[in-house]
Design goal:
The protein is mainly alpha-helical and 167 residues long. Helix content is 68%, strand content 6%. A three-stranded antiparallel β-sheet has the order 2-1-3. Bound molecules: fe (ii) ion (3 copies). One fe (ii) ion binds next to helix 2.
Length: 167
């Protein structure tokens, strides 16, 4: 059973990665004017999500919303306090500036996520949903803005047009 649990985790990770990889490949195929190949990538990406979610269900990792928010806070906090600082340091040592930037953008975004989740946890604990609000995501760094896209991204300085509204 322990081996199966490890395998489920590995399969969940692999399928999740395949989903994002195929979506990136689809964008590239669109740019290279292969729209039907792009569609195939998007179709397979959707199927990989089905696989990933099935594995996750068997792992029983989706719990109550309160527990899920707690898990999210733990994950985000680990990322910005431990994982990314270490990754950034190592990327600096190896002179990989692209990696430094990518890790730093992610680290700064995770701080905001952890903060938003903490507010959500307070709401859910008192039996209330969060107040109605729109979210806008910076497509360069992942900064998550509330209510409106800022004129300039506070993390990466991208302009307002770089933000995508979450429907
Ligand atoms: Fe799959
Ligand atoms: Fe995050
Ligand atoms: Fe940004």
């Amino acid at each position: 059973m322990i081996r199966t649990e490890e395998n489920l985790r590995a399969a969940f990770a692999g399928e999740s990665q395949a989903n994002r990889r195929y979506l990136a490949f689809a964008e590239r195929a669109e740019r290279e004017k292969f729209p039907q190949v792009a569609k195939l990538f998007r179709a397979a990406a959707e199927a990989e999500t089905v696989h990933a979610l099935f594995h996750l269900r068997v792992l029983k990792e989706v719990k109550s919303t309160k527990e899920n928010i707690e898990a999210a806070i733990e994950g985000e906090t680990y990322e910005y306090e431990e994982m990314y600082p270490k990754f950034i340091e190592e990327a600096q040592d190896e002179g990989n500036r692209g990696a430094v930037r990518s890790f730093d953008y992610a680290r700064q975004s995770e701080i905001v996520h952890a903060d938003r989740y903490k507010k959500a946890l307070e709401s859910v604990k008192s039996g209330k949903d969060l107040e109605t609000v729109d979210y806008y995501i910076c497509q360069v760094c992942g900064y998550t803005a509330e209510n409106a896209a800022p004129e300039t991204c506070p993390i990466c300085e991208a302009k307002k047009e770089s933000f995508k509204k979450i429907e």
